[in-house]
């Protein structure tokens, strides 16, 4: 006899665990299936949280070694204790995953430990035991996209998972892929002393970002010591001796060259992960990229089965998955769950940080939308000068004629926090003038946002 629940969520990543908690808050009897030994999915275990812990630690190390003298703080003989840095990261991860366990207990969510497989449209099996539910939510996340000729061993040729566990700083790290994951992890090891080369198939890094911001970002990383080989592809990576030999070719054809590295990080993207789920046993349809097909209410083609997060179309972001988890739980309870996909912020946690929400200039041009640009540099901000963090700018895009906010893009200190104000403004349909007329505390970095909004109407005060 199968154990029955109102809602079973498959996957305890940000989308899955949040969906499970919200559904329990709404009165459902809920179970969440997770095959890892700890909750939190890729994000908490081998993604967002450990990478940010190492980014913070590497920033602190770099500041101590190279930046404190400017503040009149004489620190000599700064040394790296990588084992201790990694231990701190592990502690941070453990505290977060235990926090999810606490929340499950608090909200009476049952954790079913093991790997789920469908046995029918309303039933699954986990570790040989049968379970059924009126509502089953697929929230199985994503995996690292493989590349032909590059065999991952998580020692010398690694994905983001292995890149978080290196026991020593590589002399030369080659990153395959110029996206967010590769640049964040490349930043960690560059700050700790590695030579970093990024090989990207396209002729630019971070293709989803506004092009002006992307160019400024590449210039900043180049100043930090990154080497970029844009418009190139890696056709093979072979372990040799204690390192790796890579064959790199121009993307549009040409002579191949050889690169030597201690460690290679494969970071060309992520794919929807449904392995072992046996979706065919339930009749669940997927698209040409293996993502679960859903309608506007997260429902699959099979009544009672839903999907959220990285396993469906859309940006692969933890906070996007969380919003979908909440929206779906509320829809199941008869409420009006909703996600505004036009107001999902994205952040690159390098230094400087990069953050964006809404449309880019390129998207507005492609859609033939008339727009105005308001831009203001951190160099002209008093708090940024006091911090010694003057690199970058805030860029606001508003509709010509109506002044309605269409997009916002930031490269600079604490961009990930600053973008929240502009996300709120976008969510509520504000104009650039609305943002400009809000009183911002002085001296703060947020004044750059105000000045960029003023600049959209030709009214910037401090430049």
Describe the structure.
- This protein is an alpha/beta fold and 463 residues long.
- The protein has helices spanning 14-25, 41-46, 48-66, 82-106, 160-163, 180-191, 211-223, 279-282, 318-332, 361-366, 382-387, 415-427, 432-437, 446-455; strands at 3-10, 30-34, 110-113, 116-120, 123-126, 129-138, 142-144, 157-158, 172-176, 195-200, 227-230, 232-240, 243-250, 257-261, 263-266, 270-272, 305-307, 346-348, 353-358, 371-377, 393-399, 405-412.
- Strand 21 (393-399) and strand 22 form a beta hairpin.
- The termini are far apart.
- The mean pLDDT is 97.
Number of helices: 14
Oligomeric state of the chains in view:
single chain
Average pLDDT: 97
CATH class of the largest domain: Alpha Beta
Instruction: Work out the strand percent.
Output: 25-35%
Radius of gyration: 23 Å
Count of β-strands: 22
Query: What class do helices, strands and sheet pairing give?
Result: alpha/beta
User: What percent of residues adopt helix (DSSP H or I)?
Assistant: 25-40%
CATH architecture of the largest domain: 3-Layer(bba) Sandwich
How many domains comprise the coordinates? Answer: 3
The geometry reads as globular
């Amino acid at each position: 006899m199968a154990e029955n629940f109102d809602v079973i969520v498959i996957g305890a990543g940000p989308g899955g665990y949040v969906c499970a908690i919200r559904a329990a808050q709404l009165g459902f009897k809920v179970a969440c299936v997770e095959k890892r030994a700890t909750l939190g999915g890729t994000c908490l275990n081998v993604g967002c949280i450990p990478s940010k812990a190492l980014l913070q630690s590497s920033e602190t190390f770099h500041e101590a070694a190279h930046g404190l003298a400017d503040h009149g703080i004489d620190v000599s003989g700064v040394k790296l204790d990588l084992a201790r840095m990694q231990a701190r990261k592990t502690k941070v991860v453990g505290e977060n995953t235990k926090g999810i366990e606490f929340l499950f207990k608090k909200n009476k969510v049952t954790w079913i430990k093991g790997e789920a497989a469908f046995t029918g449209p309303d039933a699954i099996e986990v570790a040989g035991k049968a379970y059924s539910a009126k509502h089953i939510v697929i929230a199985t996340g994503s995996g690292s996209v493989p590349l032909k000729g590059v065999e991952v061993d998580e020692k010398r040729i690694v994905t983001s998972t292995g890149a978080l566990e290196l026991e020593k700083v590589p002399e030369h790290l080659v990153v395959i892929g110029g996206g967010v994951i590769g640049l964040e992890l490349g930043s960690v090891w560059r700050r700790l002393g590695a030579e970093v080369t990024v090989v990207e198939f396209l002729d630019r890094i971070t293709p989803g970002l506004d092009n002006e911001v992307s160019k400024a970002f590449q210039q900043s990383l180049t100043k930090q010591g990154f080497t970029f080989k844009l418009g190139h592809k890696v056709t093979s990576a072979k372990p040799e001796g204690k390192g790796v030999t890579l064959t790199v070719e121009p993307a549009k054809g040409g002579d191949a060259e050889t690169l030597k590295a201690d460690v290679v990080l494969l970071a060309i993207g992520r794919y929807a992960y449904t392995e072992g789920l046996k979706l065919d046993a339930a009749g669940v349809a997927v698209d040409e990229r293996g993502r679960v097909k859903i309608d506007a209410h997260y429902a699959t083609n099979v009544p009672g089965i839903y999907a959220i997060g990285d396993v469906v179309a859309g940006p692969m972001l933890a906070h996007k998955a969380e919003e979908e988890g909440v929206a779906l739980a509320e829809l199941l309870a008869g409420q009006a769950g909703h996600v505004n996909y036009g107001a999902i912020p994205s952040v690159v946690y390098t230094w400087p940080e990069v953050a964006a929400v809404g449309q880019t200039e390129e998207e507005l041009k492609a859609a033939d939308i008339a727009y105005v640009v308001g831009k203001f540099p951190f160099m002209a901000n008093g708090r940024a000068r006091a911090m010694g963090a003057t690199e970058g700018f805030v860029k606001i895009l508003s509709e010509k004629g109506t002044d309605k906010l269409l997009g916002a893009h930031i490269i600079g200190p604490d961009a990930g926090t600053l973008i929240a104000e502009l996300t709120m403004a976008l969510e509520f349909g504000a104009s650039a003038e609305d943002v400009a007329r809000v009183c911002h505390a002085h001296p703060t970095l947020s004044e750059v946002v105000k000045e960029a909004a003023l600049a959209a109407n030709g009214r910037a005060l401090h430049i």
